[in-house]
């Protein structure tokens, strides 16, 4: 392993097509964090690049405020589990106006190298077009600073933060309850809106407001009779907010 270099935090953005932002998938917190860290190493403006991405235990420890002794096992476990994780995203209506979907895996394979304290993930070919030149996608792309989301404590919080960032230029996210359930792949959990609000929405809002660079509130947007069908999230960058970004180390 080469020498460890201190790098500027502004160079570490997670960039991806909005197809991926709005995809349906279910990951653990560590799996999602590993993906986020890995995606900071993808150049969104370059197709010909190394799609085998290494993440070092010391990077993990630095970014997510972990003890290094625990980081080795955490990245190994997350990488192994990612091999089996799938995602599904909407590709648009067909000629008959019906929804069409595409599914795939996050990684083609994952390998842990114990002597070097790192994991290596290969991004599968089918996913690369949504990461390299993502800005050319019809549905647009989204970038956010890794360190601005690194302190979020749940996958639901991170996914909602990503949805918000895809509408950062407007500061307003409108989303149907159905789409929110799909994005978070809740699989029939929290069928009552009161449960969804209690166990998903409110805790995520508290987490984002406390641990990210944005302040957000939400409200009901639309109803069908008494049934809540759509939500609105309004958010803005916190003023004079200094997050403890720390230093992100990059291994050679």
How would you describe this protein?
By secondary structure, the chain is an alpha+beta fold. The protein folds into two domains: about 10-150, Arc Repressor Mutant, subunit A (Orthogonal Bundle); about 150-240, Winged helix-like DNA-binding domain superfamily/Winged helix DNA-binding domain (Arc Repressor Mutant, subunit A, Orthogonal Bundle), CATH 1.10.10. Helices cover about 35% and strands about 30% of the residues. The protein contains nine helices and twelve strands. The strands form five sheets. The chain has a three-stranded antiparallel β-sheet. A three-stranded antiparallel β-sheet has the order 9-11-10. Strands 1-12 form a two-stranded antiparallel sheet. Strand 10 and strand 11 (about 225-235) form a beta hairpin. Helix 2 crosses helix 4 (about 70-80) and helix 7 (about 155-165) packs across helix 9 (about 195-210). Mean pLDDT is about 85; it is low at about 1-10 and about 245-250.
């Amino acid at each position: 392993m080469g020498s460890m270099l201190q790098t500027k935090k502004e160079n570490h953005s997670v960039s991806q097509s909005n197809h991926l932002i709005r995809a349906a998938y279910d990951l653990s917190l560590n799996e999602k964090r590993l993906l986020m860290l890995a995606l900071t190493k993808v150049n969104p403006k370059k197709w010909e690049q190394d799609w085998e991405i290494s993440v070092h235990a010391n990077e993990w420890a630095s970014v997510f405020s972990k003890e290094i002794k625990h980081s080795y096992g955490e990245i190994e476990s997350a990488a192994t589990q990612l091999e089996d994780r799938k995602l599904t995203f909407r590709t648009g209506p067909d000629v008959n106006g019906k929804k069409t979907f595409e599914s795939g895996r996050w990684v083609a394979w994952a390998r842990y190298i114990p002597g070097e304290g790192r994991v290596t993930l290969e991004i599968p070919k089918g996913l690369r077009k949504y990461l390299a030149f993502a800005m050319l996608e019809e549905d647009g792309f989204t970038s956010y600073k890794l360190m601005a989301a690194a302190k979020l404590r749940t996958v639901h919080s991170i996914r909602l933060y990503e949805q918000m960032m895809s509408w950062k230029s407007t500061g307003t996210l409108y989303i149907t309850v159905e789409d929110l359930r799909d994005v978070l792949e809740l699989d029939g959990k929290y069928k009552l809106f009161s449960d969804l609000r209690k166990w998903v929405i409110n805790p995520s809002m508290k987490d984002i407001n406390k641990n990210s660079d944005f302040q957000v509130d939400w409200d009901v947007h639309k109803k069908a009779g008494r049934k809540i069908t759509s939500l609105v999230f309004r958010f803005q960058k916190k003023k004079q907010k200094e997050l403890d970004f720390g230093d992100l180390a990059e291994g050679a």
